[in-house]
Amino acid sequence: MRKICFLSGYFNRFDLNAKSQGGAEYQNYLLKSELEKKNYQVYFISLGDRNEIYRDGNTIIIYIRKKKLTRKLGDNFFLYLPHVNNIINRIRPSIIYQRMSHSWTYAASLYAHKNKIKFIWAAAGEEDVKPFKKDRLHNLLFNFLDHLLARYGQKRADTIIVQAEYQRDLLLKNYNLVADAVIKNYHPLPCEKIERKGQFQIIWVANFSRNKQPHIFVELAKYFEEKKYPITFLMIGRPYNEYKQKMIETDISALNNIQYLGPKDQEFVNRSIAESYLVVNTSILEGFSNVYIQAWLRGTVVYSLNSDPDKLLSEKGLGFCAYGNFQALVAAIENLFTDKEKWFLFSQKCRQYSTENHSIENQISKLLPFFK
Fold first, then answer.
1. What strands lie across the sheet with 3-7, from one edge to the other?
2. What is the pLDDT of residues 5-49, one digit of tens each?
3. What global pTM score does this model have?
4. DSSP assignment of 101-125
5. Three-state SS annotation for 184-252
6. What strands lie across the sheet with 258-260, from one edge to the other?
7. Where are the alpha helices (DSSP H) in 52-93?
8. What's the rounded Cα separation, in Å, for the pair 7 and 269?
């Protein structure tokens, strides 16, 4: 039985419905499920709340306890390199796979080169293919060290995979690295009933980090309440910063047209998206959001403040991107609300495109040959 080692950030067991599962981890979950069917032994190395080993069938997850220092100063993955090296040496994998970029990429490349095995590196988002950003000065040195180690490992990967064509272009421009394949994010086809009842509902799904800008969605709700539009706003996602979370929840409680439901499992999220007319994304940076695909598969249109991967929103008719202009986003939502025929045409295009381009069947089939 061949052994495959996944290097993950925070892999929440391997529960499809885990409330705190991030986009990269969810894609890893779907991939490992397909590899298990082909009788691979799958290992995960992940940070966690304690040192432990979790087993289920052909999957073993090895957790490294996150240090208290990093809980305050950021992830600082390089602090765990000795642990990661020891674990990889104990596993002795045939292939190492990583879907994100940090200093463990360095560990993977060293082991793969020394032991003549394959290392597959995949981009998890836009930050993985862009230059280093000096945004957190209190932890600048640690972040830069992590960045340098990650780039060293990327350059020595045997296979490089990106999610979108624009990521392929940025990787070449910024690091002179050529991606071996563009493989889009993949999702199961909907199994829940798709039915929209009652008021026009707009949903936001993300964690409450600074990058996701949840306060902008609250501002949207405030604008439409003041204008007395019969629109319901719904927020789903895990808290991030306790102090800022309280501020946002205070703002939410002052409005009557918005609900924050906290973190929810994938089944609940998919059902809520299927009941909504519109998904709004307010992130500063986004890779290729899983929520976009979850929405499109259910005929839910996507409007975005900044993120337009491969111009799919602006040029392929799958939604709208305001390119940073909040007033343009407001105006576009007002227009869509009053033009139901326009929404219906958008919705049809979304379902057709996503079924053809983002189903597990057509994307995993492109990915699996790299694991031979």
1. 52-56, 59-65, 41-48, 3-7, 95-99, 118-122, 159-162, 181-182
2. 999 888 876 454 444 567 788 899 889 989 999 899 999 999 988
3. 0.83
4. -STHHHHHHHHHHHHT-EEEEE--S
5. CCCECCCCCCCCCCCCEEEEEECCCCHHHCHHHHHHHHHHHHHCCCCEEEEEECCCCCHHHHHHHHHHH
6. 258-260, 231-236, 200-205, 278-281, 301-304, 319-321
7. 68-73, 81-91
8. 26
